[in-house]
């Protein structure tokens, strides 16, 4: 599996309105011919297992090429490539049948999520003199630092893109020979610069990397030393380990991630953190399985909950969805740190002025050009969202001014680029600034100015004035104004759960929106990033402080303390804060409270309570309160509901809502065996909880209710135990909806995936039997391509071939699968553990999963997706849809 770096562009409060297209498809791929195997009997595999295994594969004509050894006390296996010209379904089946193989997985992958930063600086123009850091105040880390807790004696392993350890705030060197080796004392580069996820890693012992800023930024959040910007890491005296799993571009395979996690575990890490992930929501992926094993073996792991909050509910992320893993959501910083670069302008050649701007992801070169506005109305909401009029002048020698809003930056850029524009200044439609994401290759530079500056310019242009703008990039100033819109509330990009099996995630949230930290020196040394990537190392640092104070804390206890000592936050949709709590499946236990996590005398034995769906409803649950203090404590028990979120819209659609989902205040009723309970010092007591489902909900819309059980002790301890459940039966939820257009047949030559007409004839080369390719390059022939998409997640998707009704009688090798007579599954299927909002392709070369080639003829494909909690042997538990018929012919 390839996984995304869980980072976003440094965001203004309303950025998500323009980031996500609700119709976008999330495609999941695999490394062609790539596999991971886990061997049986992990503790006693003979040393010649690898050579024997590869010898057996060679006898089967698979031509294996070794990729990685995955050998540890927790996982004994290999990753490798086989000939991509083989029928991969048969390959997987043959490997799984081998006696020494416990399980085989394809090396799955996700496309890397693009991310960018605000402009960087070397610190020479800082205007702040404050000794406090806003995110530390938010998480009460400052109070622990004042007590002398700084992570001393703990080892935090960072699985990421590598680190620029030459940075003075990160120690300036690496390894045991370094006199300042307290920071980057351990680590390893598992992949090399040229690794992109599909090719074979080239490891070396040095985890240095300056070509990707992500890992350096994460390292600074955990453990940065004092610097010109008056901040430190959450655990500035912790020992850091850097385990590089990304090259300079591309993604990371799950074999590499398994190797990195097990290496960090065996290096003695006290905490392992990874700001990596991708849409999933299932607990069975190989990397997720290994991370859960590491937690069970005694090492806590913090994982980013993910940045696809725009996708709505039931959109968990690997490996944050793992059992026992601490999944971390993101909260926006109460300040908006920003490096503002300044330019100058003149109005009618007489009035000099200065303005601040943030460069786009593509940068903003030095230019001096006349300003031209698309609209003379500074209140327009969809500026440049439609093609410009035919009489638009040539914009080649203009600096084009466009108001942000309604459509993406790239849409606006493309519409002005059609008239020659090369440079753009966007002006914001909200307070503060954000760095616009522009990828159009015709645009050479872009930046954003404030709403006020843009409106002033538009007014001058509308009055007939001429404005000349000069950008030279000489002056950059750091400031950190208050964020009064979303500060202290959940970031709109933070992923929503529950998981596909109704587990409650995330466990906790932390500052992750607009975070100042270290960057590689060649990129300026410091910068601002946003994402659950930034929240996750913050929590890892908090765990280091907890471990310094209480070295004997086990992962289960750490997870429960974090989840119950957090501060629940009210909901914010990116513009407005409401008077009800954000759903638990967005925020977990709320904002992390490091001081309470260290000093609480009260420990709850669970991080949250999952009441599941109505078909598996846990009507009575329990939790244990342990008093670790020196005196008896009486606890008062109560509850408060969070908002109930509807998964589906109210128009009858089966496609889940995008952010923000409809929220209502109708919640569950919680009852206790007693409204108060006394617990003696050093003792534990069990609390019985019964829950009554919310009333007056539209159950067909899959409502997810949640809230917090409040536990207030006479000693001052105040805890909040999150709970959540689904007020409908998940097995009733549609997972495959033919009305959405899926499944359908397209052509392997069509990257836009347009459905072909019914009856389309495809001519297939007999010599071409791969299921991983696209077009037969020797003949230019086109191959039928099955396109499948889900509206809800499914653990099993079948694709069975049906002959046309008129020719059924001519086939003797039919088989009845789930009550339907078919020729069998097409090669490359069945597919397992797919997330929702996911679309993927399976090319059909006329070969079935057992290696048989079907005769030329007319066929359709019956796709069946198992509903959540469905019985894989029961046909009634599947949603099914059939493609239009198509015809295949063969050439030799």
TrEMBL record:
Signal peptide positions on this chain: 1-17
Domain PA residues, every copy: 382-456
CDD domains membership: PA_PoS1_like, Peptidases_S8_5
Sequence ranges assigned to domain Peptidase S8/S53 in this UniProt record: 151-566
GO CC terms: membrane
UniProt entry tagged with the keyword Secreted: yes
Keywords tagged on the record: Cell wall, Hydrolase, Protease, Secreted, Serine protease, Signal
C5a peptidase/Subtilisin-like protease SBT2-like Fn3-like domain ranges (all copies): 610-723
Pfam families: fn3_5 (PF06280), PA (PF02225), Peptidase_S8 (PF00082)
PROSITE patterns noted in UniProt: SUBTILASE, SUBTILASE_ASP, SUBTILASE_HIS, SUBTILASE_SER
Family indicated by similarity: Belongs to the peptidase S8 family.
Protein known as: Subtilisin-like protein
Organism: Aureobasidium melanogenum (strain CBS 110374) (Aureobasidium pullulans var. melanogenum)
Taxonomy of the source species: Eukaryota, Fungi, Dikarya, Ascomycota, Pezizomycotina
């Amino acid at each position: 599996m390839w996984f995304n770096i869980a980072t976003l562009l440094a965001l203004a409060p309303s950025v998500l309105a323009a980031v996500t297209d609700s119709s976008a498809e999330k495609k999941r791929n695999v490394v062609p011919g790539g596999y991971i195997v886990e061997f049986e009997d992990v503790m006693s595999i003979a040393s010649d297992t690898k050579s024997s295994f590869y010898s057996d594969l060679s006898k089967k004509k698979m031509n294996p090429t070794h990729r990685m050894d995955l050998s540890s006390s927790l996982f004994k296996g290999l990753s490798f490539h086989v000939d991509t010209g083989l029928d991969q379904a048969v390959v997987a089946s043959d490997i799984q049948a081998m006696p020494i193989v416990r399980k085989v997985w394809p090396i799955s992958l996700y496309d890397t999520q693009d991310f960018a930063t605000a402009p960087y600086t070397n610190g020479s123009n800082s205007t702040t003199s404050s000794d406090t850091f806003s995110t530390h105040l938010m998480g009460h880390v400052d109070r622990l630092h004042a007590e002398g807790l700084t992570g001393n004696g703990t080892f935090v392993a960072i699985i990421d893109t590598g680190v620029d350890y030459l940075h003075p705030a990160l120690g300036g060197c690496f390894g045991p020979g370094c006199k300042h080796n307290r920071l980057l004392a351990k680590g390893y580069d598992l992949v090399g610069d040229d690794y992109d996820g599909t090719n074979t890693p080239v490891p070396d012992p040095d985890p240095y990397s300056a070509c990707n800023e992500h890992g350096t930024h994460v390292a600074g959040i955990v453990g940065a030393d004092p610097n010109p910007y008056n901040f430190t890491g959450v655990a500035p005296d912790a020992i850091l380990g850097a385990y590089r799993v990304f090259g300079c571009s591309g993604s990371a395979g799950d074999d590499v991630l398994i190797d990195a996690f097990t290496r960090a575990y065996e290096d003695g890490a006290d905490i392992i953190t990874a700001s990596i992930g991708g849409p999933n929501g299932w607990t069975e992926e190989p990397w997720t399985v290994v991370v859960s094993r590491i937690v069970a073996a005694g090492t806590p792991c913090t994982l980013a909950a993910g940045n696809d909050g725009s996708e709505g509910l039931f959109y968990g992320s690997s490996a944050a969805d793992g059992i026992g893993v601490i999944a971390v959501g993101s909260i926006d910083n109460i300040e908006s740190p920003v490096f503002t670069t300044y330019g100058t302008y003149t109005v009618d050649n007489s009035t000099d002025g200065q303005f601040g701007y943030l460069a786009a992801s593509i940068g903003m070169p030095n230019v001096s050009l006349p300003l031209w506005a698309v609209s003379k109305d500074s209140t327009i909401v969809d500026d440049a969202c439609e093609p410009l009029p035919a009489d638009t002048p040539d914009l080649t020698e203009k600096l084009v001014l466009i108001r942000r809003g309604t459509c993406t930056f790239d849409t606006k850029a493309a519409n002005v680029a059609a008239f020659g524009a090369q440079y753009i200044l966007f002006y914001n439609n909200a307070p503060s600034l954000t760095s616009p994401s522009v990828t159009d290759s015709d645009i050479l530079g872009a930046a954003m100015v404030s709403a006020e500056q843009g409106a002033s310019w538009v007014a001058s242009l509308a009055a007939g004035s001429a404005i000349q703008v000069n950008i030279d990039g000489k002056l950059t100033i750091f400031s950190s104004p208050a964020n009064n819109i979303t500060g202290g509330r959940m970031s709109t990009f933070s992923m929503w759960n529950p998981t596909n099996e109704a587990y409650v995630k995330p466990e906790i949230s932390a500052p992750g929106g607009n975070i100042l930290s270290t960057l590689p020196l060649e990129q300026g040394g410091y910068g601002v990033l946003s994402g659950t990537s930034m929240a996750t190392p913050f929590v890892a640092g908090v765990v280091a402080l907890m471990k310094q104070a209480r070295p004997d804390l086990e992962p289960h206890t750490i997870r429960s303390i974090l989840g119950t000592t957090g501060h629940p936050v009210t909901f914010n949709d990116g513009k407005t804060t409401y008077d009800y709590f954000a759903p638990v499946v967005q925020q977990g236990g709320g904002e992390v409270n490091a001081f309470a996590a260290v000093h609480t005398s009260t420990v709850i034995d669970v991080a949250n309570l999952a009441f599941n769906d109505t078909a598996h409803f846990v009507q009575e649950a329990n939790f244990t309160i342990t008093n670790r203090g020196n005196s008896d404590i009486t606890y008062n028990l109560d509850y408060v509901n969070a908002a109930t979120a509807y998964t589906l819209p109210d128009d009858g659609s089966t496609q889940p809502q995008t952010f923000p989902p409809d929220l209502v205040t109708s919640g569950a009723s919680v009852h206790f065996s007693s409204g108060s309970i006394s617990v003696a010092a050093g003792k534990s007591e069990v609390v019985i909880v019964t829950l009554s489902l919310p009333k007056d909900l539209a159950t067909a819309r899959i409502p997810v209710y949640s809230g917090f059980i409040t536990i207030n002790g006479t000693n001052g301890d105040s805890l909040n135990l999150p709970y959540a459940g689904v007020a409908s039966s998940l097995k009733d939820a549609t997972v495959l909806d033919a009305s959405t257009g899926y499944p359908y047949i397209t052509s392997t030559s069509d990257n836009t995936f347009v459905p072909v007409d019914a009856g389309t004839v495809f001519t297939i080369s007999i010599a071409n039997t791969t299921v991983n390719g696209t077009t037969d390059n020797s003949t230019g022939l086109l191959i039928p391509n099955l396109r499948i998409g889900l509206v809800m997640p499914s653990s099993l998707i079948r694709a069975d071939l049906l002959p046309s009704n008129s020719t059924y009688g001519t086939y003797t090798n039919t088989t009845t699968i789930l009550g339907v007579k078919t020729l069998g599954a097409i090669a490359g299927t069945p597919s397992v553990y797919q997330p929702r909002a996911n679309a993927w392709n399976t090319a059909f070369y006329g070969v079935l999963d057992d290696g048989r080639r079907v005769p030329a003829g007319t066929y359709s494909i019956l796709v069946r997706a198992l509903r959540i909690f469905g019985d894989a042997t029961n046909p009634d538990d599947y949603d099914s849809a059939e493609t239009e018929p198509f015809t295949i012919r063969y050439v030799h």
